[in-house]
Amino acid sequence: MAVTKEALDTLARPERARWLQAIADFTWQRPLGAVGAAIVIVMSVVALSAELLAPFDALLTDYEAMLAAPSVKHWLGTDAYGRDVLSRVIYGSRTALIVGLGASFIGATIGALIGVASAYFGGRVDMIVQRIMDVLISFPLIILALAVVAILGTGVFNVVLAIAIPMIPRCARVVRSSALSVREMPYVDAARAAGFTDARIVLRHMLPNVMAPYLIMLTAFLGQAILLEASLSFLGLGVQEPVAAWGLMLRGAAVDFAETAPWMAIFPGVAISLAVFGFNLFGDSLRDALDPRLRTTQ
Amino acid sequence: MTVYIIKRMLMMIPTLLGVAVLIFLLLRVVPGDVVEARYMGQGSQFTSQDLMDIERKKLGLDQPLWKQFTTWMWGIARLDFGLSMWTGSPITEEIKLRFALSLQLAVMATVVATLLAIPLGILAAIKQDTWIDYAVRVFSIAGLAMPSFWLGILMILVMLIVFKWLPPMVFTPFWVNPWDNLAQLIWPALAVGYRYSAVATRMMRSAMLEVLREDYIRTARAKGLWLKLILSRHAMKNAMLPVITVVGLEFAFLLGGLVVTEQVFNLNGLGLLFVEAISHRDYTLTQALVLIVAAVFIFVNFATDIAYAWLDPRIRYR
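ok -> structure tokens follow
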């Protein structure tokens, strides 16, 4: 193929402009994904700069203004303790992101490791590992998470683990099926012939080649993890008061006073939905982009 | 086909056994048992160790683990789940009515999900990459994003503020009063069904897109068949397979996994019972519940596999 003028232009273009071009292409080709990415970015910025953005401290109680309706002072009203709902929603994004990212990362990573190792060793090891994964998958997500919370107790870190554990078998299964084909690659044979240890082959040679399914599972988990955290906190078995968390905000007084103070029940739910919506949209288009088999357009 | 079914059936046993062992051990790893849970409220330091030991003996908790496990398994082999450690009444009795409620809710939610998913999925597939397609996709992704318990709270809110009416809060079995029963359960079924329709809608859409590109559809079009007939006779039937799997698996999860929605609508279903059982450290009840939910899941998995093989002969002969 002849070198076209456009190609030379692309090469000559400075690095930054090419980045912008890539973002513009992504936005043009996957508008829904771009919307999702925008939501995710906004949420991350809000979570990182909660101190600057929140008009009040999330824990500040004001007994003069309990259950106050939205006003100029309290944009989204106040809760039963007179705490500013907007500020708690803003600080809640931090909890949601910590739990969402933490749980998905731990769950997907351990799952990927198990999946790759299971595929690499094959035979009896693979059979036994897969049966164990079958057992774990037979529990509904929330039931397993609840059981783990019952064992470990509540609190942010335990919630992260409780959400990560049910995700491990789901990721292990998907990654294993990709790893099975990677195992047959000549470079794995070469590594084996060179006398590398099993651990090195799994970690350095196979794991990097199942990045696509790993990333797909990771992003798919993000939204689910945020939802699950909200559900656990709503049941009172997740993040505990007085930490600002969206699921927790929907609990107790929000339901009791739903008729007189509906803002307490509405806004945290909107925040959860928006966050999960953003992560799902972003994850979906990432999957489309990374997995050629599922590509529908182009 | 018979060989396939038997082979598939035998494969369920080790998985179920694994579930039983796992939940059995998990419960006993946790510090604190039902006796402690009961006396905690009264301050366990005031309860003498002897009394607690007597209680434990009554419940068989002083036995070695393998003996407890074989006793439990032997009971299950005779379809006897034993007595609840917390209430002392037979577990079968405890579960019966709650199972009826959870089952009905799961069926209703599945019906809602299917009624939404199939037409929406087909519509999105025929109108691919138009605004209709985008609207359907956003609708279904939004369903996945909204927690169904929040949707439930919003529904109650709207009924309360706009219609000044609340659904009945006490469960009446369908055969006693079908009207009251439906008036209560239709709302959680809608909230949950909408959420669960999302995955099925996307499945239906992508399966339909794939089928519409097949040769036999082109043939049907070329011979001038109505679009309606092509869709209902040729395309839909073949696109249904993956959708059946998704709906089936979701049904199994619905049965035990609606803990939060049950809380919002004040329903005494299996999910709530599970939370109670776990907080009371009621080993026998928790074990029974987990085993039932897992068994349903594994069985539905099995049934969808069979349905698959039955609908698609190519699988059978592999």
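Chain A touches chain B at residues 32, 131-132, 134-136, 138-143, 146-147, 150-151, 223, 227, 230-231, 234-235, 237, 247, 250, 254-255, 258-259, 262, 265-266, 269, 272-277, 280-281, 284, 296-297 (CB under 8 Å).
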